[in-house]
Known about the structure:
This protein is an alpha/beta fold. The chain has one domain (12-284). Helices cover 54% and strands 8% of the residues. The chain contains ten helices and six strands; from the N terminus they run βαααβββββααααααα. Strand 5 (128-130) and strand 6 (135-138) form a beta hairpin. It is globular and about 50 Å long. It starts with 11 loop residues before the first strand and ends in a 13-residue tail after the last helix.
Amino acid sequence: MKWSGRRSSENFEDRRGMSSGGKTIIGGGIIGIIILLLNTFGGENVQMLTPILEQMNGGSGAPTEQRDLTAAEIEEGKFIEAILVDTEDVWGKIFQENNMQYERPNLVLFNQAVETECGNATSASGPFYCPADQKVYMDLTFFEELKTKFGAEGGDFATAYVIAHEIGHHVQTLLGTSAKMRQMQEGKSQAEANKLSVALELQADFYAGVWTHYNQKMNNFLEEGDIDEALSAAHAVGDDAIQSKIQGHIVPESFTHGTSAQRKAWFMKGYKSGDINQGDTFAEIR
C-alpha cells in the first residue's frame, strides 16, 4: 500500500524501548479468544491449552531494560502513524458528513508489556482497544505470530486492517454502540451474550472496510494484493479457524468474534458500500 508522505499525528505514542517490569495480565485479541475457551470448557482443555499460552506469551513477565529503537522499528513506527493519520482523516470526514464530531483516539506501540486504564496486558494480548482511556495498544510482534502460528499472509495492509478494526471499536464507543451492547448482554445466557459480542466484532470489521473505501477515494492508497492481505488476516482470526487450529474442532456457541467467512464478508461489505448505515450486524441475531 502507498503510505509515505503522511503528516505526523499528535495522537501517536511509541513506548517501544522503554523499560518495564513485573508480571502483567494476558488480555484480549487472539489469546483472549483462547482464554475464553479455557473459561468456557475448563477441564482437559485447560491442561491442553496452558502450555500453548505459556509459549505464545513468550516469557513477557520478565522486566525489560530501556534501549534505542532500531532503524527498522523507526520505519515501522512511521508506517503505523501514517495509518493512524488516515483513520483520523477518514472518520473525521464521515462524522462531519453525519453532523457529528469525531474524537481522535491515541495509538500506543509497546514491547512485551503495557499499563492501561483497562488493566495491564502483555504482547500476547494482541492489538486491543481500551475504551476507558480511548487508546489502541499494539505490540507489532503480533503480526509475526499471525503469520507463523495462524497462517495469515502478512503484509502492510494486513496491519492496516487490524488497526482499522481496533479504531472501529473506538467508533462504536463514540456512537454508544459498545455501551448498548453491554447492556443487552445483561441477564443473557453465555451463548446469547456471545452472539452480541460477535455482532460487535463484525461491525468493527465492517467499519474497517468503510475506512478502506474512503481512504482509497481520498488517497488512492491501495496496491495489488492489499485486499487479499486484509482478507487473509480476517480469515486467520475467525473463531472457527482459531478453534480448529487450537483444539481440533469448533464450538459455535462459544464464538465471540465471528467465523472467518463472516469477518471477511462484513469487511468487504464495508469496503464496497462505504456506507456506515449498512453495518447493522446486530440485525442477524434479532
